[in-house]
């Protein structure tokens, strides 16, 4: 627990400085964001180092590297600042009719294209002055993006969430076989024919292996991945004009498949299933604007 001497030496501005330096990893860029001189940022870092008894950031030719202690402090400092921001934001009631706020939503591929059309409609009806920016994120980035407040909330599969986060479940997403409308495999996809087909894989890496390969390998089977692409929307365009088949999110195919000329069939073996949620930091839910946005996301999917 901090004693009175520690608290008397603690300046909230130092925590904000720590937050920005951790995000930028560079004194000059941090100074620009904070409207300070580089020497003022360096002076503030010196005060933080003495206060916390740790170097916090180590210089290298391209900027600063955080120490292990700095990385450990990232989440608790972010939570403290989130609570302060929520208190300040709550001083004036949030009025969606008059608000001109801009929210940033992080969306994992295949989820944003399902949720965002309904979200835009829901926000437009209730708050015509509010704007939304969308940032593409990967599932393994959700914690970092929320902790650093790069995004106000994330649309992502619910995996293992630290206790500092809260998730509102939106829908369950499973995977089906996607292929061009009229593809012969869609009529009656046997396991043998499915393995023999040429596959499209959606993955961050281009190594040609995904979760379907793990499912097949557990049964002593394999497949040929002919093409790897980085997003499901790219996959829709490719599947529509080739004979490739791909494991695709059911909800994505239902919403966008008919327009793209892509149809779906049940896979011959069960593939993965994920709970999709709107995730944010618990402290951020004290901000009426963020809480309102989460409600609009739930509304957008009919929750």
Q: What is the beta-strand fraction? A: 15-25%
How far is the N terminus from the C terminus?
A: 42 Å
Quick one: overall form? globular
Question: What integer value in Å does the Rg equal?
Answer: 23 Å
Present the secondary structure layout.
Blueprint: H1 4-9, H2 12-24, H3 27-34, H4 38-52, E1 57-60, E2 63-66, H5 68-89, E3 102-108, H6 112-126, E4 131-137, H7 142-147, E5 153-157, E6 165-180, H8 191-196, E7 198-202, H9 211-217, E8 224-229, H10 232-240, E9 245-249, H11 250-260, E10 262-265, E11 273-281, H12 288-300
Parallel strand pairs: 3-4, 3-5, 7-8, 7-9
Antiparallel strand pairs: 1-2, 5-11, 6-9, 6-10, 6-11
Helix pairs in contact: 2-3, 2-4, 2-5, 3-4, 6-12, 10-11
Offer a concise description of the structure:
By secondary structure, this protein is α/β, with parallel strands linked by helices. The protein has 12 helices and 11 strands.
Main features:
24% strand, D-Maltodextrin-Binding Protein, domain 2, single chain, 11 strands, disordered N terminus, 303 residues
Task: Note down, in words, how this protein is organized.
The chain has helices at 4-9, 12-24, 27-34, 38-52, 68-89, 112-126, 142-147, 191-196, 211-217, 232-240, 250-260, 288-300; strands at 57-60, 63-66, 102-108, 131-137, 153-157, 165-180, 198-202, 224-229, 245-249, 262-265, 273-281. It is globular. Helix 6 packs across helix 12 (288-300). The strands form two sheets. Strands 3, 4, 5, 6, 7, 8, 9, 10 and 11 form a nine-stranded mixed beta sheet that branches. The chain contains twelve helices and eleven strands. The protein is α/β, with parallel strands linked by helices and 303 residues long. The chain has three domains: 4-89, Winged helix-like DNA-binding domain superfamily/Winged helix DNA-binding domain (Arc Repressor Mutant, subunit A), CATH 1.10.10; 102-171 and 275-300, D-Maltodextrin-Binding Protein, domain 2, CATH 3.40.190; 173-272, D-Maltodextrin-Binding Protein, domain 2.
């Amino acid at each position: 627990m901090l004693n009175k001497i520690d608290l008397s030496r603690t300046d909230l501005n130092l925590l904000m400085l720590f937050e920005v330096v951790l995000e930028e990893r560079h004194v000059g860029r941090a100074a620009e964001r904070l409207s300070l001189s580089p020497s003022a940022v360096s002076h503030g870092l010196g005060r933080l180092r003495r206060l916390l008894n740790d170097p916090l950031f180590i210089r290298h030719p391209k900027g600063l590297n955080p120490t292990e202690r700095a990385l450990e402090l990232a989440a608790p400092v972010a939570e403290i600042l989130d609570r302060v921001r929520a208190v300040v934001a709550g001083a004036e009631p949030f009025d969606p009719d008059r608000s001109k706020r801009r929210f940033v939503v992080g969306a994992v591929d295949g989820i944003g294209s399902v949720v965002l059309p309904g979200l835009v409609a829901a926000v437009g009806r209730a708050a015509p002055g509010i704007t939304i920016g969308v940032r593409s994120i990967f599932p393994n980035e959700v914690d970092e993006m929320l902790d650093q407040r790069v995004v106000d909330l994330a649309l992502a599969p619910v995996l293992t969430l630290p206790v500092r986060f809260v998730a509102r479940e939106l829908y369950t997403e499973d995977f089906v076989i996607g292929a061009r409308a009229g593809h012969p495999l869609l009529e009656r996809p046997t396991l043998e024919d499915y393995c023999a087909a040429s596959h499209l894989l959606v993955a961050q890496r281009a190594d040609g292996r995904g979760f379907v390969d793990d499912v097949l390998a557990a049964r002593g089977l394999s497949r040929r991945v002919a093409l790897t692409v980085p997003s499901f929307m790219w996959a829709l365009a490719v599947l529509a004009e080739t004979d490739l088949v791909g494991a695709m999110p059911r909800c994505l195919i239902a919403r966008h498949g008919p327009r793209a000329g892509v149809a779906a069939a049940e896979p011959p073996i069960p593939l993965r299933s994920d709970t999709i949620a709107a995730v944010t930091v618990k402290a951020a839910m004290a901000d009426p604007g963020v809480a309102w946005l989460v409600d609009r996301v739930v509304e957008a999917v009919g929750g």
